[in-house]
């Protein structure tokens, strides 16, 4: 109860009365952010009012053009990283400044949203004094603004001299251009030159950040079987058919693997019948089902989400074992497709969390802890997690991401900008 009252008072009265653990420079940072919240909200409004669905390349570039001068205000040089036309993606905005002081930081944002131009418009609208709605307001244009305003605060106070920071705002996070070995090549190489990464995907409130995120991959199951008159199904001569075999496999996946923490596998499409066609390039199938014919083929596609590479590999081996327990008259094979790797929990990630927790306590907004990795999907930070220490979930808070009516919490917005600025300051001013 004491912690709850402290946070409420901090939100209502401002942080300064609780900032006993902050240095004079850090108090100046908080004051600067408080004075420039109207600027932050204006920038957020302008960004949200540009449709930047991943496939809307011009819209993505417009958001990049909006943010470019904002990075210049923070003393960064900028460039636009183009991608091959075959990827059908806009490209990425990269902002850099070089120095030798403190940790070399890689900041991650993204310019695109899930809302394409053919969807209903979702402009920035204030709902009341504490919330606003709009396409991407939370995921993740709010997070982009948190990062940019934090950097501007530090620059305005002369606190970015001789630091090394790369801010990389991708243009296709929601639907990465494939192959990702091309669309994420520059992203990964630049991250490797840094020591740690801070990602500004949406926050789960003031008191939780992500020290781990699950990875995502895919699988396709193909089942073949003897066909014939349905009167013979189950018999030694006719066997069970492809549909029963597919059902057996999926059910045994559920029975033998579904209780493992952080492991999920969802069949998203199943096609089977007396005649069946599946187009893998379009993830589309069609079938004719005659009930008096034993089905000769089935295709199932799904995803596989995991917290560690070891967990992914163990799950794949178990799934292959289950697939190989063929029912009479059937055969099956499963093929796996790599997607986004996991951001595994590490000691290095926990060390960054400790710094964030110290800052949060000094600000008077309570402790900050590691959130549940199972509550987050994969993200851009996962591509580089094996190279650098990482934290995610530093962006705007709210709810309803990826859905009409997405909301940002405007009351928490200033505190998240302040904390981001304080975190970057401490990381760049300590060895």
Question: How would you characterize this protein structure?
Answer:
This protein is α+β, with helices and mostly antiparallel strands and 431 residues long. The chain has two domains: 2-213 and 343-428, Zn peptidases (Aminopeptidase, 3-Layer(aba) Sandwich); 215-340, Alpha-Beta Plaits. It has eleven helices and 18 strands. It has helices at 2-13, 24-35, 37-48, 57-73, 141-156, 180-183, 185-192, 241-257, 309-323, 347-363, 413-428; strands at residues 77-81, 92-97, 101-110, 125-126, 131-133, 163-170, 196-199, 208-209, 215-225, 264-273, 275-279, 284-288, 297-306, 330-340, 369-370, 389-391, 398-399, 407-409. The protein has a six-stranded mixed beta sheet with strand order 1-2-6-3-7-16, sandwiched between helices. Strands 4-5-18-17 form a four-stranded antiparallel beta sheet, with no helix packed on it. A four-stranded antiparallel beta sheet has the order 10-13-9-14, covered by helices on one side. Helix 3 (37-48) runs antiparallel to helix 5 (141-156). The longest helix is centred in the first third of the chain and has 17 residues, at 57-73. It is elongated and about 85 Å long.
The count of β-strands is 18
Strand content: 15-25%
Using the CA coordinates, give the radius of gyration: 25 Å
Please mark out the parts with pLDDT under 50 across 5 or more consecutive residues, or reply none: 1-18
Name of the CATH first level of the largest domain: Alpha Beta
Structural class: alpha+beta
> What would you call the shape?
elongated
| Strand neighbour order, sheet with most strands | 1-2-6-3-7-16
User: What is the average per-residue confidence, as pLDDT, rounded to a whole number?
Assistant: 94
Give the SSE string: HHHHEEEEEHEHHEEEHEEEEHEHEEEEH
Helical residue percent band: 25-40%
Number of helices: 11
CATH superfamily assignment of the largest domain?
A: Zn peptidases
Largest sheet: 6 strands, mixed
CATH topology of the largest domain: Aminopeptidase
Q: What kind of oligomer do you see? A: single chain
CATH architecture annotation name of the largest domain = 3-Layer(aba) Sandwich
Termini distance?
37 Å
Number of domains: 2
């Amino acid at each position: 109860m004491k912690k709850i009252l402290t946070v409420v008072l901090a939100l209502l009265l401002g942080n300064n009365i609780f900032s006993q653990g902050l240095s004079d420079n850090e108090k100046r940072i908080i004051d600067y952010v408080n004075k420039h919240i109207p600027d932050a909200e204006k920038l957020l409004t302008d960004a949200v009012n540009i449709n930047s669905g991943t496939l809307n390349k011009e819209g993505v570039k417009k958001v990049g053009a909006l943010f470019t001068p904002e990075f210049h205000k923070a003393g960064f040089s900028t460039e636009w990283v183009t991608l091959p036309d075959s990827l059908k993606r806009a490209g990425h905005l990269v902002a850099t400044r070089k120095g030798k002081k403190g940790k070399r930081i890689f900041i991650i944002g993204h310019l695109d949203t899930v809302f394409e131009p053919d969807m209903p418009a979702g402009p920035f609208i204030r709902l009341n004094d504490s919330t606003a709605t709009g396409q991407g307001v939370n995921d993740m244009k709010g997070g982009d603004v948190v990062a940019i305003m934090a950097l501007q605060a530090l620059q305005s106070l002369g606190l970015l001299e001789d630091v090394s920071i790369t801010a990389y705002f991708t243009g296709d996070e929601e639907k990465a251009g494939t192959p990702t070995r091309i669309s994420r090549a520059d992203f990964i190489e630049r991250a490797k030159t840094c020591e740690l990464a801070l990602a500004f995907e949406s926050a789960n409130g003031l008191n939780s950040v992500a020290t781990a995120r699950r990875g995502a991959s895919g699988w396709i199951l193909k089942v073949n079987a003897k066909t014939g008159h349905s009167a013979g199904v189950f018999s030694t001569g006719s066997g069970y058919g492809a549909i029963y075999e597919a059902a057996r496999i999926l059910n045994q996946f559920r029975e033998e693997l579904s209780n493992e923490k952080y492991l999920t596998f969802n069949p998203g499409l199943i096609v089977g019948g007396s005649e069946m066609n599946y187009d893998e390039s379009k993830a589309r199938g069609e079938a004719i089902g005659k009930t008096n014919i034993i089905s000769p083929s089935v295709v199932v596609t799904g995803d596989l989400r995991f917290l560690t590479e070891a967990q992914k590999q163990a799950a794949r081996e178990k799934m292959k074992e289950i697939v190989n327990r063929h029912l009479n008259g059937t055969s099956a094979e499963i093929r796996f497709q790599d997607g986004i790797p996991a951001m595994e929990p590490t000691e290095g990630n926990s060390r960054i969390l400790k710094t964030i927790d110290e800052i949060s306590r000094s600000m008077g907004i309570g402790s900050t802890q590691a959130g549940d990795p199972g509550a987050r999907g994969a993200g851009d930070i996962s591509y580089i997690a094996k190279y650098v220490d990482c934290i995610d979930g530093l962006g705007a808070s709210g709810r309803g991401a990826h859905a009409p009516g997405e909301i940002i919490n405007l009351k928490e917005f200033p505190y998240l900008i302040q904390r981001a600025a304080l975190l970057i300051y401490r990381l760049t001013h300590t060895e």
